[in-house]
Amino acid sequence: MVSFLVSKFNSYYAARPVLTTMVTNAVLGGVADTVAQTLTAVRERAVRKPGGPDPKTDRLAIEIHEVDRRISEEELIPDSKMLPPPFDFERLTRFMAYGFIMAPIQHKWFGFLNRIFPLTNGAGTSAAAKRTAFDQLLFAPVGLGAFFTFMTVAEGGGRKEIQKKFQDIYIPSLKANYLVWPAVQLINFRLMPRQFQIPFVSTVGIAWTAYLSLTNSAEEA
Fold it and tell me: InterPro entries per the record (predicted)?
């Protein structure tokens, strides 16, 4: 099955690389937000259930520390008998749309990195390290800013809401990015064929996008 899927992806990518990447990104973005919403629902059910875990002591709690300092527990978990919260299809659509829109930009960016830092037999690791450095120092801050801006505007927010989101969660999210993505991108640029680089990032990014989704929704709350 894996071999069949890889073969199909390669054939579609050879014919229409950008469109194939856009569809793949949208699907994986949808998977990531579905994971995030499921985690939120399970966590809220566990916390509100009589005799359930104490959110202050439960080590399995999903905590977004920098945001939690600004939002009280009562605001994140309001008194309600509606358990779990309903699945937000509009939010799912926003994440899929963001992945779809960002794919051409990622495609161009990765192509640019491949051209200026080509992998050679004698300089494969150093070229991958240079690509990673460029990606994390230039693209990562801009991409993260684009994510929060797009989500805020798609949720109906304006300049004030964008400013507040940047003040509250941009820096903590960027710090978290630097704990995860340099190692992932080094593996990606060193080992992955070009057609699999963006899908690899998107697949690993399911957990990262779920984190961003939780961060974004916590700030919204």
Answer: Mpv17_PMP22 (IPR007248)
- Would the pTM of this model clear 0.85, i.e. be above it? no
Question: Measured on CA atoms in the order 189, 194, 200, 202, is the torsion positive or negative?
Answer: positive
Q: Does residue 37 lie in a domain region?
A: no
Q: How far apart are CA 113 and CA 111, in angstroms?
A: 5
Residue 213 lies in a domain: yes
Distance between CA atoms of residues 54 and 90, nearest Å: 31
pLDDT, averaged in runs of 10, over the chain (221 residues): 80 89 90 84 69 56 50 47 70 92 93 90 86 95 94 91 91 91 92 84 80 69 56
**Domains of the chain: total:** 1
Q: Find out whether the peptide bond into 85 is cis, omega within 30 degrees of 0.
A: no
Domain-embedded: residue 105: yes
Residue-wise pLDDT for 167-216, tens only, equals: 988 998 899 899 989 999 999 999 988 888 888 888 888 888 777 777 77
Do the beta carbons of residue 128 and residue 190 sit within 8 Å? yes
Q: Per-residue pLDDT tens for 46-59?
A: 666 655 555 555 55
Cis bond leading into 84, ω under 30°? yes
End-to-end CA distance of the chain: 41
Q: What are phi and psi of 154, to 5 degrees?
A: -65, -25
Asked if the structure places residue 13 within a domain, the reply is: no
Residue 149 near residue 164 (C-beta atoms within 8 A) = no
